């Protein structure tokens, strides 16, 4: 029963959090809700929830594995090079089949955009003007 509550808490954290989060981030949110919950427990529930299809893994090159709620519509990710947070980009450039040679079959695509989020972009601008 305790396990179920922990699993539900972790699923709720991902549902309330729009953007993909790492296991240590989930752990820090979970500790506020379930005092004393260990990181190994968080990893275990993340694994089980992923296998059950209730949450989805987000694997980006050179990044720690993140998790997000399952069932989001097709979307892509933006990695902030300042704070390392990952944001969802809703929408898509559309059909990428025109990039692919004749006779090739496209199954899916991933698109990751790198840059600075609004806050980090503003901080960079502030640094430049000496604020
Ligand atoms: Zn940022
Ligand atoms: Zn797309």
How does this structure look, described?
By secondary structure, this protein is an alpha+beta fold. 38% of the residues lie in helices and 19% in strands. A hairpin with a 7-residue loop joins strand 2 and strand 3. Helix 1 crosses helix 2 (23-33), helix 1 (2-16) packs across helix 3 and helix 2 (23-33) packs across helix 3 (39-51). 15% of the residues are buried. The mean pLDDT is 90. The site of one zinc ion (ZN) has 8 residues, from helix 4. One zinc ion (ZN) binds at residues 74, 76, 92, 109, 111.
Helical residue percent band: 25-40%
Roughly how many Å is the radius of gyration? 18 Å
SS elements, strand count = 6
List the ions, cofactors and other small molecules found in this model: zinc ion
* Uncertain segments: none
Number of helices: 4
Instruction: Give the mean pLDDT.
Output: 90
What percent strand?
15-25%
Please give the largest β-sheet: 3 strands, antiparallel
Tell me the series of helices and strands, N- to C-terminal.
Answer: HEHHEEEEEH
Task: Name the structural class.
Answer: alpha+beta
The N- and C-terminal alpha carbons lie at a distance of 53 Å
- Principal-axes geometry comes out as flat
- Largest sheet strand order: 1-3-2
